[in-house]
């Protein structure tokens, strides 16, 4: 099966089917124009259709059967450019060219080149030393805008013993790239140098939005016992549209859950493929969280105070409406001699009276 697949892939780029009576091919001088980024050729016969391929992937139809436009040209690893020509009668002819020409030992080039945008502003790239790199190999990194060809050298390298560079970091992409466009593609290049041999470069092509690790959104909420409204804010220099994922954890006794009447719950959110926000716990019915006995004590206190006030007001009002009746004198009962009383005759001395002597004081001169 693997052999059959290999034959099918290689057929359009290796097999020549001449169509003219003299056996001459319908095109000649297949070449790459670096200035215009065109794969072009010279027509030498009648053709019905021409298609272009890059490393086996379909690029598109030729413009006026004269050339194919290329988005980017590689600098390090050779790419295969193939044209598939259909001539009148339906027969096929193919031709190809490799670009650029391979130079040096490819196993001396930096390997496993990876880049990522993280923490909103940082670009970090890493690579490993080539398996067959010379002992004095050194690497340099730069970033290139494919649309403008502007280049940015690495400002800060990461090194391993004995000082070989194996990583690079840009600390603030927002200042580096003034124009924010998620469709902008960049070339990430690691060039190798050595005193004894030529070291090929390594490169990858990506947009910054493709390699961005999205930061966690800022999450806020407004809620009550009936409804919860969650809002979050997303930040990115290179991505404009997001798909969000929401995780909500809530203790339930039922076998279902709906957003209304949220109660108490914990939620995290992220943009698809990004980092999750820190779990946040929300209490949307705080009035139900006050212990019942507190409310009962408060209510009983209010009732007692109210009852006391009403009772005082009621007693004061009754005293004013019904004042107490004064004591009435009984002429009969008041003249009755009490058993503890004794009779008294006017002018008669009492038995317990003591004799009194009269003394006259004469003033001396």
TrEMBL record:
SUPFAM superfamilies: Fibronectin type III
Matches recorded under InterPro entries: FN3_sf, Ig-like_fold, IL3Ra_N, TypeI_recpt_CBD
Primary location recorded for the protein, binned into one broad class: membrane
Keyword Cell membrane assigned: no
Regions crossing the membrane: 292-312
Membrane topology: Single-pass type I membrane protein
Compartments, record wording: Membrane
Domain IL-3 receptor alpha chain N-terminal: 27-100
Keyword terms: Glycoprotein, Membrane, Receptor, Signal, Transmembrane, Transmembrane helix
Signal peptide boundaries: 1-21
Protein name: Interleukin 3 receptor subunit alpha
Organism: Phyllostomus discolor (pale spear-nosed bat)
Lineage: Eukaryota, Metazoa, Chordata, Craniata, Vertebrata
